[in-house]
Design a protein that fits this description.
The chain is an all-alpha fold and 224 residues long. Helix content is 81%, strand content 0%. The chain has eleven helices and no strands.
Length: 224
């Protein structure tokens, strides 16, 4: 008879997922920027992309897939350069959208003032979700973070069923954080003037770009 799985494993995974997602980095700033520019729906879909990637890495750590962990961590420099390059590209596109929003067309369409690409095919929920999954997966060191947290909170036991429960908890905790964050940002967004939105867009894009440059420089220096 199979041993009962401790339901507390889900709560531990929930806490871990929430804590990991809470650490604001370039991915978090990108979710905030997308919420401000495109609205809550676009922001929460982006956040769910991050939560999906967190769940994948949590599963690798929880199921003890050490070979896969070693492979991914060994590729962290290359993935860092790739992820950094994507961040730079997104930052440049964000700055270009602000510049384009200063055109006379923006005076007619308030939404264009916020982001002229807001209704373009590129700004779709599918692309928002996919890019965030990809960007989050470019940091395989996250697996090591989950492994350490699982060990410290006793969330690494319970067999396959326990590992699955922890994984679901991590994904749920991460999703909960992005739900809260995007809801707060979306609420504030309605009180912002178009000029304030443009200013926040520029600031977020510059910081995201700086993170990207740092990741590329670090990756190139480590591989040299």
């Amino acid at each position: 008879m199979a041993a009962a799985v401790d339901p507390g494993l889900y709560l531990r995974g929930l806490a871990i997922g929430f804590a990991v997602a809470f650490a604001l980095g370039p991915v978090g700033l990108l979710v905030i920027r997308r919420t401000i520019v495109h609205g809550w729906a676009h922001g929460i879909v982006s956040g769910l992309g991050v939560a999906t990637a967190d769940g994948l890495y949590a599963a690798i750590a929880a199921f003890g897939l050490s070979a896969l962990t070693s492979l991914l961590v060994g590729l962290d420099r290359v993935l860092g350069v790739v992820g950094g390059s994507v961040l730079i590209l997104l930052a440049v596109r964000g700055l270009r959208s602000v510049r384009a929003g200063d055109s006379s067309e923006a005076a007619v369409d308030p939404e264009a003032t916020i982001d002229p690409e807001a209704t373009s095919r590129r700004a779709t929920p599918a692309t928002a979700f996919g890019t965030m999954v990809g960007l989050t997966l470019t940091n395989p060191a996250t697996i090591l973070s989950f492994t350490a947290l699982f060990a410290s909170l006793g969330a690494g036991t319970g067999g396959p069923a326990g590992a699955a429960l922890v994984t679901v908890g991590v994904a749920s905790g991460s999703a909960l954080w992005w739900l809260l964050l995007t809801s707060i940002v979306a609420g504030l967004r309605t009180r912002l003037t178009p000029s304030a939105v443009r200013g926040l867009n520029v600031l977020a894009s510059l910081v995201i770009g700086a993170f990207g440059v740092g990741a590329v420089v670090a990756g190139v220096a480590m591989t040299a």
